[in-house]
Amino acid sequence: MLQLPHQPLQVAAVPPQRAPAREDEAGPWHAEAVCRRDEAGLFFAPSKEPTAARLAREEAAKRVCARCPVMVECREHALLQPEPYGVWGGLTAAERRVVLARRRRREVELRKAAATERIAQAG
Ligand code: SF4
C-alpha cells in the first residue's frame, strides 16, 4: 500500500475513514514528499489542540511544504480528493475550503458567461 506523504505518528484527530491516496490517483509525487516521515507530528492536529498551538504547528508545517519539490502536485491532490484534514501542499483544511469555494464560484461564472454568449449568438 502506498504511504501517505506525511504519516501522523502521534495520536491525531484524523478519522479512520481518511483513505490513503492510491498511486494511480495521486501520481508518483508521494515518493518525493519532504514530509514522508512526519516525526514532529506537524501535519495533523492532535486531539484538543489549543488554537495557539494549532496555528504554530500549521505555520511550521507550511514552512516544510515551502521547501517541498512536489508542493503543487500535493496541493492539487488535496483539493481534488478532497483531503478534509491536515496541512497539504502548504494549505490548511480551512484554506483549501476557501480555494475550492473560489473555484466553484469561478466555474459558475464561466458557465453563466458561456450561456449568455450562446444566447447572444443565437438571438
Ligand atoms: S507539500 Fe507539504 S504536505 Fe505536501 S508532500 Fe510536500 S511537505 Fe508533504
TrEMBL record:
Q: Which UniProt keywords apply?
A: 4Fe-4S, Cytoplasm, Disulfide bond, DNA-binding, Iron, Iron-sulfur, Metal-binding, Transcription, Transcription regulation
Question: One Pfam family of this protein, by short name?
Answer: Whib
What InterPro entries does the record tag this protein with?
A: 4FE4S_WBL (IPR034768), Whib (IPR003482)
**Ranges of compositional bias, category Low complexity:** 7-16
Cofactor(s) needed for function: [4Fe-4S] cluster
Family affiliation:
Belongs to the WhiB family.
Q: Know the name of this protein?
A: Transcriptional regulator WhiB
